[in-house]
């Protein structure tokens, strides 16, 4: 039962709920250095945000595929079937698991009466399946993605879309993410922001400081209680 | 003497005119793997574009510094003075040289009567010094940067700012860049776009195809003649 005045918690999915590190093995499996995973993911966000800044939109999986192609076609030592390789990496997004702190943390938040939704630049279908595999399907009331507003986070329209879908005001929602750019964007749009540190670096000074800073999702449940 | 009806050519600077590969040595000099350069630069653009997509602005050098800090503070094997290391990498931006095709290509374009300006998400002062070191100071009529519109490319406002400063219409200008996101953004804003391939990958299908595709700047002079 939702608690009166408890904020709506809007969860980012990629890296915030899902552990993306198995994608490093996917790079190894296509014959590329595993550390290319990090460059690939930064490049996918760079290109998706560039399209967003220019007022455009493209599907995450299409940008993700182009990202693998670009990396492999400019890697002089790599040879192989580039379409097959791009497909193998992107397919890995469908087989991720949640971080170890997620099941207990999410259940604790749900028990404390928070309403929970996901909002991803990826696919709401993959979010739903990820959380289903973790036995958390009944904890979230909906899974939203950037295809609704046709804008990636951190564009204001993406956060606006979430609160409209759920029927709350902007200041009744808190975005939870490991990525500072998402926390920053949510706060500029008028939501609260909870930065999930896990084992991450310091929060960048060029972005708005988070409303809440927590080490993991159990700590978030305690902080917001 | 500018030719009647010749388009204004708007040059991106980082990687388009400047060869940024010496920054790999800067990473080696601070005790980090040289390949971190690529991850750093992708992350700087990711974070700068995120701020842009969220309607905000930060100075390039500040985002660049935060990018080094974030990488080093999450690299378990790295130890050292993080501020000094960030400063050493960012200082490298002041000591770059132009790509080998730039001097002849720029002179050929100037001789053919094109008006040339630079527009960078970095610093116009660094653009000016880079081109001065290459003996090309007199080829460009001005050096512009994102601090003017308080928006990074590829936001429409950044391209609009350039044509207003120079006094041409959007469709009288062509953006020249190695980065597809810049070509795409310029074209969405109403300029032409020239994609400089050099030895780059294929152009991504999620972005608007370039008006012109050339291998280097000499080829651009021939293509536009």
TrEMBL record, chains A, B:
SUPFAM superfamilies, sorted? HAD-like (SSF56784)
Q: Which domain of life is it from?
A: Bacteria
Q: Which Gene3D superfamilies match?
A: HAD superfamily/HAD-like, Putative phosphatase, domain 2
Query: Tell me, what's a Pfam family for it?
Result: Hydrolase
Keyword Hydrolase annotated: yes
Q: Name one GO molecular function term.
A: phosphatase activity
What family is reported? Answer: Belongs to the HAD-like hydrolase superfamily. S-2-haloalkanoic acid dehalogenase family.
What organism is listed for this UniProt entry?
Streptomyces coelicolor (strain ATCC BAA-471 / A3(2) / M145)
Q: Which PANTHER family match?
A: HALOACID DEHALOGENASE, TYPE II (AFU_ORTHOLOGUE AFUA_2G07750)-RELATED (PTHR43316:SF3), HYDROLASE, HALOACID DELAHOGENASE-RELATED (PTHR43316)
Key words, A-Z: Hydrolase
Q: What is this protein called?
A: Dehalogenase
